[in-house]
Amino acid sequence: MVARPPVRLRIEEMRVTDLPAVQLIEQASFTTPWPAHAYRSELETNRLATYLVVRAADALVGYAGMWVMVDEAHITTFAVHPAWRRRRIGERLLLALVDLARARRAREATLEVRLSNLPARRLYEKYGFRPVGIRPNYYSDDHEDALIMTTEALDSPRMEERIESLRSDLDATPAPAAADADAAYPALAPTRSERRR
Ligand SMILES: CC(C)(COP(=O)(O)OP(=O)(O)OC[C@H]1O[C@@H](n2cnc3c(N)ncnc32)[C@H](O)[C@@H]1OP(=O)(O)O)[C@@H](O)C(=O)NCCC(=O)NCCS
């Protein structure tokens, strides 16, 4: 079998034209997905918000959003296409958000995640987020609690060292193979691992 070359990954700001692809991933990832109009309104009217997408060749394979309010960065959404998970795309996206938060002079970054969502919790822990509290009954569909996770100061030497070491690691990791790009948009099975509030 001929080895496929790596596909080029690009992280860019989300555009309104991305919303159909975002919706596919959203519906495959959350049991109470945000509707497309919620994303449209975020993109068009929320000046505190930034939404990023990851493209592998031309396919949109992940996205994330963040609000920066005063000196706090709040991650609002985060998902990777099911066919592209475990390829360090989530890491690249989270690193991009942390870089953005630091560039905007946020003191720390925070988010809520379902207690049961271990893949996401492990990802956030790897990037220095730590549990700081619980929001009881946070999710409206099944009343699961949310875990609040927050970083230490983004400009602390320990956090900077962690981020730079993870960045070097990622830089040394080959991008996913082009063969994966061919599989980017099979019909998505409804494997919903996280639900929205
Ligand atoms: C959580 C999610 C974004 C991870 O994306 P991903 O691209 O698969 O993650 P990566 O390949 O970059 O993994 C990075 C780290 O995350 C953790 N991780 C990711 N998937 C994991 C899994 N299934 N089990 C355990 N840890 C996992 C690991 O720590 C991993 O680092 P490692 O490879 O050194 O062990 C993805 O699973 C997803 O989209 N889930 C559904 C939506 C969701 O839950 N969003 C979060 C809302 S708060």
SSE order and pairing:
Elements (H helix, E strand, L loop, with lengths): L8 E5 L5 H11 L6 H10 L3 E8 L2 E11 L2 E9 L8 H15 L4 E7 L3 H9 L2 E7 L10 E6 L5 H15 L6 H5 L15
Parallel strand pairs: 4-5
Antiparallel strand pairs: 1-2, 2-3, 3-4, 5-7, 6-7
The chain binds coenzyme A.
Radius of gyration: 17 Å
What structural category characterises the helix and strand content? alpha+beta
Gap from first CA to last CA:
46 Å
CATH superfamily: Gcn5-related N-acetyltransferase (GNAT)
User: What best-fitting shape do the alpha-carbon axes yield?
Assistant: globular
Quickly count the helices: 6
CATH architecture: 3-Layer(aba) Sandwich
Low-confidence stretches: 187-193
Task: Give the helix proportion (percent range).
Answer: 25-40%
Strand order of the largest sheet: 1-2-3-4-5-7-6
Roughly what fraction of the amino acids lie in strands?
A: 25-35%
How many distinct folded domains?
1
The major sheet is characterized as: 7 strands, mixed
CATH topology: the name is Aminopeptidase
Account of the 3D structure:
- With 197 residues, the chain is of the alpha+beta class.
- The chain has one domain (9-173): Gcn5-related N-acetyltransferase (GNAT) (Aminopeptidase), CATH 3.40.630.30.
- Helix content is 33%, strand content 27%.
- It has 6 helices and 7 strands; from the N terminus they run E-H-H-E-E-E-H-E-H-E-E-H-H.
- It is globular, with a radius of gyration of 17 Å.
- The protein starts with 8 loop residues before the first strand and ends in a 15-residue tail after the last helix.
- Residues 187-193 have low confidence and may be disordered.
- The chain binds coenzyme A.
- Residues 29, 78-80, 85-91, 113, 117-120, 122-123, 126, 193-194 line the site of coenzyme A.
